[in-house]
Amino acid sequence: MDYTNQKQPQNYSQMEDLKTLDLEESVSETIMRDLRMIAYKLKYVLIPKEQEDNGKELRNWDLWGPLIFCLALAMTLSFKADSTTSSSKSDVFAIIFVLIWVGAFVVTLNAQLLGGKVSFFQSVCLLGYCVFPINIEAIIIAFVGSYLPFVVKLIPVIICFAWSAYSSVGFMASLVPPHKKKLAVYPVFLFYLFLSWFSLIV
Amino acid sequence: MNSKNEGIEMKPILKQDREEISKYDITKAAHPGICFFHIFFKFCAFFSYLFLGLIISSTLFQYILIMIFHSFDFYTVKNITGKFLVGLRWYSDFTPKGDEIWRFECFDKCKRSKIDSSVFWTFQFGASCAWAFFVFTNVLSFEFVDIIFAGIGASLSWINLWGFYKCSKDQQRKMKGVQSYLTKKGLQMAVQS
Q1: Which InterPro entries is this protein grouped with (chain B) (predicted)?
Q2: Which residue among A11, A169, A181, B153 sits deepest, i.e. has the most Cβ atoms within 10 Å of its Cβ?
Q3: How much is the ipTM here?
């Protein structure tokens, strides 16, 4: 066991040592450590080159990352929404929020019912982190969308949707038996497709 | 040296006197700042749920603020307040095989006081019951959106309460284990001598 690099975990099997150390941690250290873990997981999930062991790093799940991205997406889309009535803005916020969490729950439930052996929270964590490209796309469209024709707006939408779907499908497909892969992967596509489309038309 | 020792001996006696007068006197707690934040985020969440509509007209900002306060409260109680005020911690871990297990732990070496733990448990339990009450009234009056936010608040509070309750059971079991070990040792020594 390597005890030297304990501030920044490169490998989550070292988390045992870290957990005994944080008895004496101050509040700011706790917060910074959690933020660094979120950034590390984000990089791991979204940059395919770093995925060597196919999901073992995700065992240390956390739901703070998904919450941040969900809030960011909901806020971006509701600020951009039709401002004639204030109720439609808050409706968009509530819809996105409920949609992301209920959608992640349903997709995970589907994977588990198909015989996938994965912890419920790990899968929700993964689906939440893969919402990040849709966040990027929503921000791009919010800033420059009004100046571009519809076809040009489709390009970042398609790129980010493909990025999200590709990142999450790799994990989801490895969880279920091979002959049920498509059944498990299809709701994931639907989920991100709906989110991308929603961010385009709002 | 003598005056220092006297100073250390004096403080616990004073603390016990004051504790009988007021269990919730935060200024005498071992971690007053953390007690304050434990109460502050709960108060903000309740205030924004009940009264923010009177201050800010845009419902969107109300929803955003309520969600932010809920998540701050949950994070603070789980990671910061529980550790400093009552010396307990709960989290999910994974075995080398890859199975997920939940761990509930208590710290032995931790500066605690009765005020800290009474503040922690009272406010956590009180907030959980209050959110549960709001969910109940919203269900009865069919206010769908309010159910979501009160429901999120209630579930986060009850999850924390359940987690720390299981930790405290572990703590009590440890204490009983330590006591029985000490009595065994004492009996052994008495028998040997």
Answers
A1: TVP23-like (IPR008564)
A2: B153
A3: 0.77
